[in-house]
Amino acid sequence: MPDRPALTETELLDYAQDVLPPEDRAALEARLAEDPAARATLAEWQRQDGAIRALYDPVAQEAVPDRLTDILRRAAAEDAGAEPPRRSGRRGLIAATLAALALGAGGGWLARDLATPSAAAQSLAARAMGAYATYVVEVAHPVEVPASEAEHLTTWMSRRLGHEIRPPDFAAAGFSLMGGRIVPSDQGAAALFMYDNAEGQRITLYIAPQGAGQETAFQFAQEGTTQSFFWMDRDLSYAVVGSVPRDLLRRIALEAYDQLI
Amino acid sequence: MKVLVEIEAAIPALRRYARALMRDRDRADDLVQDCLERAVASRHLWRGDGPVQAWLFRILINRYRDLQRRSPLPGHLVAIEDLVSEPAQCGGQEGALALREVHEAIARLPVDQREALLIVALEGRSFEEAASLLDIPKGTLMSRLARARATLRVLTGRGTGAEVVPGPSRGRR
């Protein structure tokens, strides 16, 4: 028999998963017959699978704890009691806000300085990413004021920051507002809005007053998997933070920029 | 509402996967609870594109990753010296793996390898489904899977895991 190339991991994985067409499978089996190491590996993988299923399959047979089924009971009761909240009303409100904010959105900001972030900008990114890390993992109280109290949220944030602050709408990017909270910044109170998408990914928008009156282009920071686009514009500075693909985060940041001008 | 029925039907599989990921029963159920609350809260937004169960797994995995970012548990990274000093009990190749040992070894796998191994070996997902649920390319999934299996083999004292040539495919480190 001529020497055949040793079986690769990819080939073995495909074989073990049984996804090969019959011809390829037969050819691979012929090589497997001459490759004791690969056969041993396959056998070991089967033992691993057996052990994993023996360990955890029984979990699926356990009675489901009440605290989990209760979530569905409550939801079913809500649905039975009232029509689900219609989105259109909220959409209309947001559309009106959008129209009001669209005025004055100028071009040309991309051409602004792309220099190294200033100390103030670096501090902004660090504050915003710190706030994200603190609250995005929060299960019970991710936000202080939920999106359902939108008017209260807007009034409260605007009063604390001394500027009119409205959360932008990221529905086009698949994210909806969960709510907001007040967090610290170098210049006093800052607003932190949290959004999530249907798959439970969360992003935050951090808005802080800035004393310097700087204007900057978009700048980018990354720490581990957490990424941020941030910029300064007249009286306020902004940072969008998340652990989502960079293109998506950039799109959200652009939405925020367009809507917040 | 139909989606609620489908969510409820997915609970056993979600609990199984969460338990294998987290080990601790209460923390695993906390993760499932969080996942269910989020799913139920956005049930009216769900557009019905694809199976409910896949949607729930994506939520669960995203929340799991959030938790890992906050507090990567000690022991989830495998130190090199642990890998080489593992007693080589190669004598019992044919025997069944000790479940306890496998349980410990899975907990010591790096998070990305553990996610990949369990979604395929425990949940029986195809490579394509698994890659989509974990939001990674298929090549990356396969290389994580191969590394997970090799690491598991070493951690359970059953060889070096190096008998097989790494694949020619991309995605292999």
Automatic annotation (TrEMBL), chain A:
<feature type="domain" description="Anti-sigma factor NepR">
    <location>
        <begin position="53"/>
        <end position="76"/>
    </location>
</feature>
<protein>
    <submittedName>
        <fullName>Transmembrane transcriptional regulator (Anti-sigma factor RsiW)</fullName>
    </submittedName>
</protein>
<keyword id="KW-0812">Transmembrane</keyword>
<keyword id="KW-0472">Membrane</keyword>
<dbReference type="InterPro" id="IPR041649">
    <property type="entry name" value="NepR"/>
</dbReference>
<dbReference type="Pfam" id="PF18557">
    <property type="entry name" value="NepR"/>
</dbReference>
<dbReference type="InterPro" id="IPR041916">
    <property type="entry name" value="Anti_sigma_zinc_sf"/>
</dbReference>
Automatic annotation (TrEMBL), chain B:
<feature type="domain" description="PhyR sigma2">
    <location>
        <begin position="7"/>
        <end position="60"/>
    </location>
</feature>
<dbReference type="InterPro" id="IPR013325">
    <property type="entry name" value="RNA_pol_sigma_r2"/>
</dbReference>
<dbReference type="Pfam" id="PF22029">
    <property type="entry name" value="PhyR_sigma2"/>
</dbReference>
<dbReference type="InterPro" id="IPR039425">
    <property type="entry name" value="RNA_pol_sigma-70-like"/>
</dbReference>
<dbReference type="GO" id="GO:0016987">
    <property type="term" value="F:sigma factor activity"/>
</dbReference>
<dbReference type="InterPro" id="IPR036388">
    <property type="entry name" value="WH-like_DNA-bd_sf"/>
</dbReference>
<dbReference type="InterPro" id="IPR013324">
    <property type="entry name" value="RNA_pol_sigma_r3/r4-like"/>
</dbReference>
<dbReference type="InterPro" id="IPR053866">
    <property type="entry name" value="PhyR_sigma2"/>
</dbReference>
<dbReference type="InterPro" id="IPR014284">
    <property type="entry name" value="RNA_pol_sigma-70_dom"/>
</dbReference>
<dbReference type="InterPro" id="IPR013249">
    <property type="entry name" value="RNA_pol_sigma70_r4_t2"/>
</dbReference>
<dbReference type="GO" id="GO:0003677">
    <property type="term" value="F:DNA binding"/>
</dbReference>
<protein>
    <submittedName>
        <fullName>RNA polymerase sigma-70 factor, ECF subfamily</fullName>
    </submittedName>
</protein>
<keyword id="KW-0805">Transcription regulation</keyword>
<comment type="similarity">
    <text>Belongs to the sigma-70 factor family. ECF subfamily.</text>
</comment>
<keyword id="KW-0804">Transcription</keyword>
<keyword id="KW-0731">Sigma factor</keyword>
<dbReference type="GO" id="GO:0006352">
    <property type="term" value="P:DNA-templated transcription initiation"/>
</dbReference>
<feature type="domain" description="RNA polymerase sigma factor 70 region 4 type 2">
    <location>
        <begin position="100"/>
        <end position="152"/>
    </location>
</feature>
<dbReference type="Pfam" id="PF08281">
    <property type="entry name" value="Sigma70_r4_2"/>
</dbReference>
